[in-house]
Design goal:
13 strands; alpha+beta; two-stranded antiparallel ribbon; Phosphorylase Kinase, domain 1; single chain; dual-specificity kinase; transferase; 5-stranded antiparallel sheet; 2 domains; globular; Kinase-like_dom_sf; 292 residues; Transferase(Phosphotransferase), domain 1; EC 2.7.12.1
Length: 292
């Protein structure tokens, strides 16, 4: 069903319960083994406090097979990223994004109420509950072919992958979050807490509305420049508290060292082509009504 650096996820048949399940098989490497045991603790903690629906994937069981930690989950559908990819990165309808956003915020609120921070929210870690979809005519391509547009039959989603989840009272000095969804306080070495999840949610919702990641970068200074381009200058109180390692990103006190510090002209162009957040919203709405 999926594969990553940690190992792979297989669809399996549970002969006792007579249902399909998903089993995450973790590679027999110490750091992945330790992360899997942390994930099991988090999943059990989430399940123990479940009231109604948390919007988090349910653990069924776990076992150790030849030093491979195997975690048994309820079987869910594809990720939101899988759907974007399948539709050639066409955006979801705004009404559907609203439903996803509502559920996502409820799930994050549930975790935060338990003093847990996910730290790795992204479309790949949000799964649809059902694999069922409906196919509709999409946009015509340059060759005048009409591509079928796939939409989920149900908007129900659940969060997965709690291997990087942390309690709020733990030490928060490490780098967390996948790059495109990483909050500025993490880049600046300020430490992080609940707000880093909310930053990721914002990035996810824009991606679902536009079809592409907002901050497509792999370099810290360029990432900060993109943030300023979209949202305006970084708050001075954050810059004043930035770690020593982050001082190189600034000049003249609180001014970002941009474009002087850019690694290439391509990097400068990548930042320049971004629009202010309000403009991104306006472009999306115009495109949405034009296409859909």
């Amino acid at each position: 069903m999926g594969e990553g650096t940690f190992g792979r996820v297989l669809e399996c048949w549970d002969r006792q319960t007579r249902e399909y399940v998903a089993i995450k098989i973790v590679r027999s490497i110490r750091k992945y083994h330790d992360a899997a045991m942390i994930e099991i603790d988090i999943l059990q903690h989430l399940a123990k406090n479940e009231k109604g629906t948390s919007g988090c994937v349910q653990i069924r069981n776990w076992f150790d097979f030849r030093n491979h930690i195997c975690i048994v989950f309820e079987k869910l559908g594809p990720s939101l990223f899988d759907f974007l990819k399948r539709n050639k990165y066409s955006p979801f309808p705004v009404g559907l994004v609203r439903e996803f956003g509502h559920q996502l915020l409820e799930s994050v609120a549930y975790m935060h109420d338990l003093h847990l921070i996910h730290t790795d929210l992204k479309p790949e870690n949000i799964l649809l509950v059902s694999s069922e979809c409906v196919k509709l005519p999409g946009c015509k391509s340059s060759s005048d072919e009409t591509h079928l547009w796939c939409l989920p039959k149900s908007s129900a989603i659940k969060l997965i992958d709690f291997g990087s989840t942390a309690f709020d009272n733990q030490n928060h000095s490490s780098i967390v979050s996948t790059r495109h969804y990483r909050a500025p306080e993490i880049i600046l070495g300020l430490g992080w807490s609940y707000p880093c999840d909310l930053w990721s949610v914002g990035c996810i919702l824009i991606e679902l509305c536009t079809g592409g990641a907002l901050f497509q970068t792999h370099e810290n200074l360029e990432h900060l420049a993109m943030m300023e381009r979209v949202l305006g200058p970084l708050p001075e109180h954050m810059i004043r508290r930035a770690s020593r390692g982050s001082e190189k990103y600034f000049r003249s006190g609180s001014r970002l060292n941009w474009p002087e510090g850019a690694v290439s002209r391509e990097s400068i162009r990548a930042v320049k082509k971004l629009d202010r957040l309000k403009r991104v919203r306006d472009i999306f709405l115009q495109t949405y009504w034009k296409v859909y």
